[in-house]
Structure formats: C-alpha cells, structure tokens
Design a protein that fits this description.
By secondary structure, this protein is mainly α. The chain contains three helices and no strands.
C-alpha cells in the first residue's frame, strides 16, 4: 500500500471510530445498552448489527 493510500484508509477508520463513539455515547446515555466490546467496534458490520439491535430495543421500549 502506498503512503497516500495508507493515509486515506487511516482517515476513513478515524472517521468511522469518531462516528461510532458518538453513536455509542447516545445509546449508553439512554440506558439502552452498555458500550460494546472492542471486538464489536473493530468490525463495522458487527457494530452496525449492534446498533440495529439497540434501535429495536428502543422501538419496543417506547413503542415507536
């Protein structure tokens, strides 16, 4: 991987982690769930599944 490609990839992951931390903060603030383990955060598809589960819990709890 060239240096430019590496920097672009690093920036994408940084943006992902920043956004993921915002989402985790919102979910934990509502009390729907604790923060997920690092393994979940490091796997975007698994993290997206965790977020979807939290949305379902929220909808069921608040009848959305």
């Amino acid at each position: 991987m060239e240096e430019d490609d590496f920097l672009v990839e690093a920036a994408r992951w940084a943006a992902y982690y920043d956004r993921a931390q915002e989402i985790i903060g919102q979910i934990t603030a509502t009390g729907l769930a604790d923060a997920p383990p690092r393994e979940v955060l490091d796997a975007p598809r698994v993290f997206r599944d965790w977020v979807e589960q939290c949305k379902k819990i929220h909808a069921a709890r608040y009848k959305c």
